[in-house]
Predict the structure.
Amino acid sequence: MRTQSALKKNKTLRASIPYKQAQSMGIIFTAEDKNKHQDIKEFMHRLEHDGKHVQVLVLLPEKNENHEFEFDLFSLKDVSFWGKLNSAKAIRFCEVPFDFLFCIDTQSNPLVLDVVARSKAHCRVGRFNQNERGYFEMMIEQSGTTKGLIETMYKYTQKLR
């Protein structure tokens, strides 16, 4: 309920700008394994090579290992019994008006969607899921790997003019 409420209350102006004009990029994802972390790092470096400022936020599920200490993270422990987000890093991440926010999860996660719903990003990009249409301005139809999702997201955002 909190996520749906945040989605409705968030009145941020949503619009995409040409990729070349974009300055700030956000990446949010759920930690799964070292391969996914490596794919995210490569994507982050590619964006930085394009001259973009990149911030990354990771949801660390219970009993999962933090594979990358350079990323900010939050976990289920940062959510109250009533569903209130208590992570200062996650709250700060939500407040950044990214030109593009990439949600790089192949499986839906309610905690990640809560951050996406609260985000002040101008264009939120995620994998296509019929039930998540209100969370993203751009959705990518991709049923393959994380690396494939990243490549497709990058390809289509670069084509924005």
Summary: The chain has a mean pLDDT of 90. Residues 2-158 form a domain with the Rossmann fold fold (CATH 3.40.50).
